[in-house]
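Work Package 3 (structural annotation) set out to generate three-dimensional models for the target panel prioritized at the project kickoff. During this period the team completed the workflow that converts sequence records into discrete structure tokens, so that structures can be stored uniformly alongside our sequence database. As a representative example, we reproduce one entry of 249 residues exactly as it appears in the project archive.
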Amino acid sequence: MQEKKRICLTVAYDGTAYCGWQVQKNGKTIEGELNRALGELTGEEIQVIGASRTDAGVHGLGNTAVFDTCSRIPGEKFSYALNQRLPEDIRVRESKETAKDFHPRHCKSRKTYEYHILNSAFPNPVKRLYSHFTYVPLDVERMRQAAAYLVGEHDFASFCSAGSQAETTVRTIYGLTVEKNGEEIVIRITGSGFLYNMVRIIAGTLMEAGCGRMAPEEMEEILAAKNRTAAGPTAPACGLILKEICYGE
């Protein structure tokens, strides 16, 4: 019998039509589509393990998933074969054989997300699925000042939605920038890992600072409170994109 090998996939997807990454009983998911396509391809019952369980409506350019298979298909060829069996809004950007003990959620990594905001008088229908629209003017400099308080290692309990199963709410943010290009504002955040809804709550809170509803220095009090009610609202899913996951130190 062919010995099992572990294959690593880099997956991109438009999350608009899906109930998130993780398999659910009632609704299409990214994980479910990958499992289906792999089953058709290999004849095996396969369940992928994803690095980030993105929520309904969240997009991904570089999520990581692994699976074990006895298939003789070379690791680098899985991407071509799977893309013929996946819907157009999911694509495997790369596939390769990896170490048998590599686990995408248990290895040290840096994850980078972007949150896109369309800040204009009127919505842009072309961008409606990939950015959050607000007509309320946002001061990018105030958003940057607020963001600076979150860089480093902190207890992010105030930025975590109820229902999280995390053992600890301490996380490290390596970088957090706010840039404006025309009518679009992009919040880019890189960290060791993120709590449930953490990036969207950070985005919602930075927008509160940007529109003047809170002072940037209030971020210190929000962190110290360790209470979800202290932070701003959870920004809508459509503006969030998982850009990349880098493994190693």
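The radius of gyration is 19 Å.
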